[in-house]
Amino acid sequence: MSAAVGDTVTLPCTYPTGSGTTTMCWGRGPCPNSKCNNKIIWTDGSKVSWRKSDRYQLMGDIEEGNVTLTITGVTPDDAGTYCCRVEIPGIFNDQKKEINVKIREDAFVLGPSTSSTLNVTWTTNNERSYCSVFYTVVTLLVVLIILFGILLYRNRLHEKKMDDMFLTVSAISPGTLKAAQAVENVYMKI
């Protein structure tokens, strides 16, 4: 889908607020592993805390999770990919949406510009990036190494206890055993 130069474009993005609101950002280009590249607007969960230009507005109810971006006075430079990133607490939990916008340069308007909502194609990036998969694998390897170390340590303690028991039993000399048997025999004969 596309919009004409001078139009107002609306890029949809919402998130559930059952657990409360959170910070979010809109940026230009694909969604990175964290935050937004080429930031154009930022919220603190209840209001816009930073914006690159007055052309970028969040007209929805931010506290209800409506962080839909409205761009007024669209220019050819507005074409491209936009990233909506909602920062959900936890590792790799952020909600990311990429929206591709095409601007038609052939539709210059002589009078006042028209306002339209652009029906855009958007994809939800639910797949983990290669970087996040790498961090997950590294984390699992570290946990496995720690568990292996704990098991090895416990095994060594068990072996040491067995060795100490063996040393205690083998420390008794044969002469000591014969003397103990002789004393025992004397008591038994009486």
Automatic annotation (TrEMBL):
It is a single-pass type I membrane protein. It comes from Eleutherodactylus coqui. Pfam families: V-set. GO terms for cellular component: membrane. The keyword Disulfide bond applies. It is found in: Membrane. This is Ig-like domain-containing protein. The chain crosses the membrane at residues 133-153. The keyword Chloroplast does not apply. GO terms for biological process: apoptotic cell clearance; cytoskeletal rearrangement involved in phagocytosis, engulfment. Its main location: membrane. Keywords: Disulfide bond, Glycoprotein, Immunoglobulin domain, Membrane, Signal, Transmembrane, Transmembrane helix. GO terms for molecular function: phosphatidylserine binding.
